[in-house]
Design goal:
- By secondary structure, the protein is α+β, with helices and mostly antiparallel strands.
- Helices cover 45% and strands 16% of the residues.
- It has one domain.
- The chain has a 3-stranded antiparallel sheet with strand order 1-2-3.
- α2 crosses α4 and α4 runs antiparallel to α5.
C-alpha cells in the first residue's frame, strides 16, 4: 500500500515540477528546427548552383556561337572544362559532376524535338557533341549532379531516383551560330 501511495506522490510531484522543462522543450524542438534550418540552406544552395550553372553555360556557349571553338576543333571535354572554369564556387567538384550535351538543328523549331531528359533515367554517356557550323541552330544543355546532404529532403529534392541522394540541375541555351567566315574568329579584337 505504501508503494502505491509513494508512486502517486511521485507522479504528482513530477507533473508539478517545472525544473528542466525548458531543456525538455528545447530537445523536442531542436530536431525539427535543425532540419528546417539545414533544408533552407541546402535549398538556397541548389538555387545558387542552378543560377551559377546557367551563367556558366551561357558564357561558354558564346564561344560556340561566335565560331571560336569550331576554329580550333575544340572537344567536348574542353567545352566542359570551360563551363567548369566559369563555375567559380563549384569549380573543384565540377568536372566529376558536370555533363554537357550540344546538338545542332536545321531550324529553331527542331529544338523542340530534342525532348527533356528524365533525371531518374539519366545516362551521361549518351549525350552529343555537335557544335555546328556558321548559321546552324545549336542547343546547349548542361547537367550537374547535386548531392543532397540534408536528411528528409531526399523525398522532395531528389529527382535522380530514390536512394540516389542526388538532384540533377540543368541549364540550357539555344541560338543560331553567327555567320562567320571560313576562318572563324579566334578571339575578341581589342
Amino acid at each position: 500500500m505504501r508503494s502505491s501511495k509513494h508512486r502517486q506522490g511521485f507522479l504528482r510531484r513530477f507533473c508539478k515540477a517545472s525544473q528542466g522543462a525548458v531543456a525538455v522543450e528545447f530537445a523536442v524542438v531542436l530536431l525539427p528546427f535543425l532540419v528546417l534550418m539545414f533544408g533552407t540552406i541546402e535549398l538556397g544552395m541548389v538555387f545558387m548552383a542552378s543560377s551559377t550553372l546557367q551563367s556558366a553555360t551561357d558564357s561558354a556557349a558564346r564561344q560556340l556561337r561566335t565560331g571560336e571553338f569550331q576554329a580550333t576543333n575544340t572537344s567536348k571535354a574542353q567545352f566542359k572544362t570551360l563551363v567548369c572554369d566559369n563555375m567559380a564556387w563549384l569549380k573543384t567538384p565540377c568536372s566529376s559532376y558536370l555533363t554537357v550535351d550540344v546538338q545542332t538543328f536545321a531550324n529553331l523549331a527542331g529544338t523542340s524535338g530534342a525532348g527533356a531528359i528524365d533525371p531518374s533515367n539519366f545516362k551521361p554517356n549518351t549525350t552529343c557533341w555537335s557544335p555546328g557550323q556558321a548559321g546552324d541552330v545549336v542547343l546547349v544543355r548542361t547537367y550537374y549532379e547535386w548531392h543532397v546532404f540534408t536528411p528528409l529532403l531526399d523525398q522532395s529534392l531528389v529527382n535522380m531516383g530514390s536512394g540516389s541522394g542526388k538532384r540533377l540541375i540543368t541549364a540550357a541555351t539555344s541560338f543560331r551560330n553567327e555567320p562567320w567566315s571560313s576562318n572563324p574568329p579566334t578571339g575578341a579584337a581589342c
